[in-house]
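Reminder to self: tokens first, then the designed residues, so the page reads top to bottom the way the pipeline ran.
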């Protein structure tokens, strides 16, 4: 993958960049049987109240049904194409099984067209795209789409360019070093896919102008200091002035920085060996 830098034909184009999508190869027509209508909520809940700020608008999208479980064990599938997915930062791979049924999986870097991928509870060849249990994966091999509970599907390490590695196997658990730097235990019977996820340079894209963020469905974020007192604890005052508080607050009056928000009795506290560096 690479980034294409725009020519400075306008202030919004100056220094802005875009993905060149060179990784998208093979069949590019989305599989209609694997697509569903996606209705945008605009950050509202069922009562119509805003629960997530700064969301709304953007281009229409159709959801791709990605198989995070891959439970067709021992059945090799052929990669038909690496495709763009507007709902996630990484790309997806369209695969076809021997019975001609198709599925989407997360596409790792260096996956090839015509390549065979397989998911198995037994030992598999260490090739990008294959999926097996953590016990069968050597230490130091990059992996992604890791399960937290056996059979529930991958929930860890699913965004562009990410990967984690198995550090060791201790009893019933595998020790993983997460992309954040956190070291945690997961059951060694959980499954993971081999390889680093595609679209590595996604985090290096410079969006250039507010309009591109609006196309993605992000609305403006207004500083609390620029609001009225009724809207934010930082609001009010004449002209440019400080927030008038000993510490920053959220719009709802709680401490905004330096406060630990993790519950002290969370069930997974004994599984985290080392917290991510702050």
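Designed residues (278 positions):
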């Amino acid at each position: 993958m690479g980034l294409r830098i725009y020519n400075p034909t306008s202030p919004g184009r100056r220094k802005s960049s875009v993905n060149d999508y060179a990784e998208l190869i093979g069949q590019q027509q989305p599989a209609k049987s694997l697509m569903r209508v996606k209705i945008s909520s605009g950050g509202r809940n069922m009562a119509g109240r805003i629960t997530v700020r700064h969301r709304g608008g953007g281009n229409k999208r159709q959801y791709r049904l990605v198989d995070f479980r891959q439970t067709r064990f021992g059945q090799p599938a052929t990669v038909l194409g690496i495709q763009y997915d507007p709902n996630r930062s990484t790309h997806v791979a369209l695969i076809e099984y021997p019975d001609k049924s198709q599925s989407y999986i997360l596409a790792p870097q260096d996956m090839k067209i015509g390549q065979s991928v397989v998911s198995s509870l037994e030992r598999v060849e260490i090739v990008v795209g294959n999926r097996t249990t953590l016990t069968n994966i050597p230490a130091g091999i990059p992996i992604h789409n890791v399960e937290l509970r056996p059979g529930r599907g991958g929930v860890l390490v699913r965004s562009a360019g990410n990967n984690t590695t198995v550090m060791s196997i201790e009893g019933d658990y595998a020790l993983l070093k997460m992309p954040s730097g956190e070291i945690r235990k997961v059951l060694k019977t959980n499954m993971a896919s081999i390889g680093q996820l595609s679209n590595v340079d996604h985090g290096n894209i410079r969006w250039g102008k507010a309009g591109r963020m609006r196309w993605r469905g992000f609305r403006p974020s207004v500083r609390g200091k620029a609001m009225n007192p009724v809207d934010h604890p930082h609001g009010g005052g004449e002209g440019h002035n400080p927030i008038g508080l000993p510490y920053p607050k959220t719009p709802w009056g709680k401490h905004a920085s330096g406060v630990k928000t993790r519950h002290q009795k969370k069930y997974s506290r004994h599984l985290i060996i080392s917290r991510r560096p702050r």
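The chain has two domains: 3-203, 223-278.
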